[in-house]
């Protein structure tokens, strides 16, 4: 019983590690942790040590959406260390973008104003609003670049429906951020040790939808109770 439960949990953990919330893929995210992604303004992460060059005249911002519908806002801050929402909200690049479907979305962004110059440091913020998790946040620390060829090979369509479903391999191939969420780490622990405590941690990190499914599938009260 313990063994079969653990293998079910291990199986389920594979999709769970990437099927939660949303990820910022391009430009490189400060970091992704689904447990704190609701912390404004940057999903719980401090400024990156290095900045990604980003073409600011038709700058691609690509996300992977894990919910059927969501609303996306994109902002830019010129503060050297923006730590509050108000650092961003006066400079909107996109507002109230309604997206449908799970998978990849890429939006072109034209930065206007006196800051739209090669070499300017900025922080981009994506606010992702769904009925499932409310407001979630991801940021990228960039330096504006007028180098158009930075975008060569990036297809950015501004489509409002998902263009393709992504997995970790595709994200990595795109040079983007993969999910270093606590769930991907604890799922390994679950598989290898199978101890009660790591099993408990793994279950907690699961996406809630999956958890319901699992509880039903297993039909075992222990999993459900472990989470409660
Ligand atoms: C962010 O910086 C603050 C202040 O330096 C620090 O206390 C906190 O641990 C940092 N957070 C992360 C996730 O590194
Ligand atoms: C932009 O950021 C880089 C790296 O963080 C830093 O070395 C540089 O001094 C910054 N430039 C300006 C104008 O602040
Ligand atoms: C522009 O970006 C491309 C692609 O990263 C790079 O190969 C090229 O050297 C850059 N050009 C300049 C002038 O920085
Ligand atoms: C994600 O985890 C891998 C392996 O543990 C590590 O090499 C990489 O630097 C991490 N990335 C971030 C953004 O923490
Ligand atoms: C994952 O766990 C390993 C050891 O269990 C640890 O060294 C590593 O820093 C963890 N990575 C993250 C992203 O938490
Ligand atoms: C988790 O396991 C997978 C597959 O065995 C491995 O590729 C990955 O590096 C592991 N992650 C951590 C954080 O140990």
Automatic annotation (TrEMBL):
Principal subcellular localisation of the protein: membrane
Entry's localization field: Cell membrane
Comp. bias intervals (Low complexity): 178-197
Keywords: Cell membrane, Glycoprotein, GPI-anchor, Lipoprotein, Membrane, Signal
Signal peptide start and end residues: 1-20
Membrane topology term: Lipid-anchor; GPI-anchor
InterPro entries: BIM1-like, BIM1-like_dom
Copper acquisition factor BIM1-like domain segment(s): 19-159
Annotated Gene Ontology cellular component terms: plasma membrane; side of membrane
Region Disordered: start-end pairs: 172-198
Official protein name in the record: Copper acquisition factor BIM1-like domain-containing protein
């Amino acid at each position: 019983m313990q063994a079969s439960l653990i293998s079910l949990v291990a199986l389920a953990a594979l999709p769970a590690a990437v099927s939660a919330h949303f990820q910022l893929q391009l430009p490189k995210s400060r970091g992704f942790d689904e447990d704190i992604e609701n912390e404004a303004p940057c999903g719980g992460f401090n400024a990156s040590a290095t900045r990604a060059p980003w073409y600011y005249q038709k700058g691609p911002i690509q996300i992977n959406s894990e919910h059927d519908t969501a609303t996306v806002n994109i902002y830019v801050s010129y503060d050297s260390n923006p730590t509050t929402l108000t650092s961003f909200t006066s400079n909107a690049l996109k507002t109230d973008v309604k997206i449908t479907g799970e998978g990849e979305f890429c939006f072109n962004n034209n930065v206007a104003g006196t800051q739209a110059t090669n070499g300017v440091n900025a922080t981009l913020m994506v606010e992702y609003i769904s009925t499932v998790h409310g407001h979630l946040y991801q940021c990228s620390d960039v330096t504006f670049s007028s180098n158009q060829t930075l975008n060569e090979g990036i297809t950015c369509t501004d489509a409002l429906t998902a263009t393709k479903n992504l997995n970790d391999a595709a994200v990595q191939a795109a040079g983007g951020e993969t999910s270093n969420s606590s769930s991907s780490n604890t799922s390994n622990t679950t598989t290898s040790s199978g101890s009660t405590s790591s099993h408990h941690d793994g279950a907690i990190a699961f996406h809630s939808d999956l958890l319901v499914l699992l509880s039903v599938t297993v039909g075992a009260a222990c999993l459900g109770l472990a989470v409660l």
